[in-house]
C-alpha cells in the first residue's frame, strides 16, 4: 500500500515553484543591481552537484554594463542584443579545456588521471563541454534559488566571444545568460511540456 501521507517530492511546494514549475526564462529586467555577494552565493550553491571525476570544468565570466558589455553585444544575435544590453549582469558560461590541471587537488584518489587527459586533447574537450553543460543546469537553478531570473541564450557567435574574451585561454564559451530581477512583460507564454509517457520507457 502506498503511503499517501508522505509527499513524493519532499522539496517544499514554494521551492518547487521557484526552481521549476513557476520559473521562466526572463526577457526583460529591472535596473535593480545584482551584487557581487549574490554572484558568489550562486556559485557557492551550484558547485556541489556531480561532475565526472569531480572535474568541475565550468568557468564563468560576469560582464556588467560598460565597455566589455558593448564588446559582447557585437557577438550576440540581433534578437538577443536589446535584452543583453539591459540586463544588470550577463554571464558568459564556458568550459575550461585545461580542467585536468586541477585533478590532483580535486580528485586526489586518482591524480594520474591528469596525465592521461593531458595526452588526449580531443577526449578532454568532449569531457569539458559535457560536464560544463551539466554544471550550467545546476548554475541556472542556483540563480533561481537566489531569487533572480535567468535568460539563457545560445544565439551568439561563440568563436567571436572566445576571440574577444578568452584569447590565449583554455576557456571556450558555451552559453550566455542574462540575470537580474524580471522586468515588465518578462515572460513569453508558457510552452507545452512533454508528458511522462512521451519520454519514459521501462525495461
Automatic annotation (TrEMBL):
<dbReference type="GO" id="GO:0016491">
    <property type="term" value="F:oxidoreductase activity"/>
</dbReference>
<dbReference type="InterPro" id="IPR029479">
    <property type="entry name" value="Nitroreductase"/>
</dbReference>
<dbReference type="Pfam" id="PF00881">
    <property type="entry name" value="Nitroreductase"/>
</dbReference>
<dbReference type="InterPro" id="IPR050461">
    <property type="entry name" value="Nitroreductase_HadB/RutE"/>
</dbReference>
<dbReference type="InterPro" id="IPR000415">
    <property type="entry name" value="Nitroreductase-like"/>
</dbReference>
<protein>
    <submittedName>
        <fullName>3-hydroxypropanoate dehydrogenase</fullName>
    </submittedName>
</protein>
<feature type="domain" description="Nitroreductase">
    <location>
        <begin position="24"/>
        <end position="181"/>
    </location>
</feature>
Amino acid at each position: 500500500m502506498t503511503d499517501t501521507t508522505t509527499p513524493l517530492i519532499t522539496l517544499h511546494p514554494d521551492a518547487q515553484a521557484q526552481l521549476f514549475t513557476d520559473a521562466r526564462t526572463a526577457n526583460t529586467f529591472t535596473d535593480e543591481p545584482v551584487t557581487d555577494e549574490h554572484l558568489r552565493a550562486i556559485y557557492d550553491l551550484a558547485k556541489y552537484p556531480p561532475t565526472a571525476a569531480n572535474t568541475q570544468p565550468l568557468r564563468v565570466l560576469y560582464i556588467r554594463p560598460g565597455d566589455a558589455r558593448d564588446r559582447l553585444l557585437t557577438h550576440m544575435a540581433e534578437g538577443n542584443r536589446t535584452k543583453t544590453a539591459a540586463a544588470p549582469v550577463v554571464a558568459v558560461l564556458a568550459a575550461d579545456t585545461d580542467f585536468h590541471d586541477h585533478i590532483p587537488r580535486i580528485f586526489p584518489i586518482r591524480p594520474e588521471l591528469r596525465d592521461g587527459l593531458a595526452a588526449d586533447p580531443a577526449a578532454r574537450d568532449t569531457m569539458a563541454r559535457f560536464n560544463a553543460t551539466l554544471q550550467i543546469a545546476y548554475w541556472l537553478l542556483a540563480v533561481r534559488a537566489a531569487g533572480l531570473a535567468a535568460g539563457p541564450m545560445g544565439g551568439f557567435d561563440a568563436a567571436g566571444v572566445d576571440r574577444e574574451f578568452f584569447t590565449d585561454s583554455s576557456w571556450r564559451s558555451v552559453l550566455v545568460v542574462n540575470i537580474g530581477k524580471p522586468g515588465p512583460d518578462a515572460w513569453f507564454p508558457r510552452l507545452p511540456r512533454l508528458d511522462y509517457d512521451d519520454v519514459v520507457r521501462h525495461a
